[in-house]
Amino acid sequence: MIRLTGVELRRLTARRITLLGVAGVVLITAFLLFVTWREAEPLSALEQQQARTSFEQDHKMWNDTHVQNEAECRKTWDPNVNPGANIDQVCSYSEPKASDYGKPQAVFSQLVPQLLHGASYFLLFAGFLIGASFVAAEFSSGAIGNWLTFEPRRMRVYGSKIAAAGLWFVPLGVVVTAVLTLGTYLIAAQLGSTAGTDWSDVIGTAVRVVVTTAMGAVLGAVVGLVLRHTAAAIGLVMGYIVLVEGVFGAFLQKVQPWLLGKNFDAFVLHDTTYDIEACTSQPDGSYTCDYIQKTLTFEHGAWYLAILTLVLVVVGGVIFQRRDVN
């Protein structure tokens, strides 16, 4: 099994689409760092002066009018117009703060989770695409039949291909997350702030991104084996994103905890949130709707992804064991 996995790793490394995929990952990684650097750049002296002038004007206007505006708001307040609203919140006019004007400082602890989360998606897609192509190409060319004459034990062949797909992407995920983390740290240290960094959170997020990258390659290999065509595998993913995540996820909001995308986010980000619309009828006959925010936990996302991957790997193995390769 180890020898077979080593052979599959070498084959995967030698494939042209693998090299093209890695080149694409490198370009996207460089682009993300470039965008981060541009976003972290502080305002020019002229822009800072304009922001300061806007703050001073708004603060002066607030000083001159907020008492009168609050009094008029309370005088004309009608609880029937906004049922359930708090008069103190509605009629409160917050004092402008200088920190709200201009560009906020780039903070490493805020930048890196967002960047790694974004990287997790393109790494997942790259792993899925290359993994699907890696296995599906053998069926399209007929090479899988020749391979089974050399090693007729199908489950060993299946296991080696799945293992190779997952293992190959572990170092790629490690390198990409390390480059993004180090690059973002250097940018924040130069142009912003690195204070308050919790490295255990940063490393934890990076590890989870590496795990989902390997998972994407494994799932791609399984789907490629079942469908036997890379284009069909990509079409299946696109169909799921559009129909299930896009259409059903928007109209059937209560199914959000069972969507792949939400559980993926919950795992990578260590908890995520989603909104559910709650509508009620008022005594006066009106119909009001509010959004209730709910939390999808990391544990839920981890179990969801683990069970999904395990089930698909088992199903793929059963299909490969029983179905004719031609």
TrEMBL record:
Any one Pfam family match given in the protein's UniProt record, by short name: ABC2_membrane_2
GO CC field: plasma membrane
Molecular functions per Gene Ontology: ABC-type transporter activity
Transmembrane stretches, start-end: 17-37, 121-150, 162-187, 207-227, 234-252, 301-320
Keyword list, A-Z: Membrane, Transmembrane, Transmembrane helix
PANTHER family assigned: INTEGRAL MEMBRANE PROTEIN-RELATED, MEMBRANE PROTEIN
Protein name (database record): ABC transporter permease
Source organism (scientific name): Kribbella antibiotica
Organism classification: Bacteria, Bacillati, Actinomycetota, Actinomycetes, Propionibacteriales
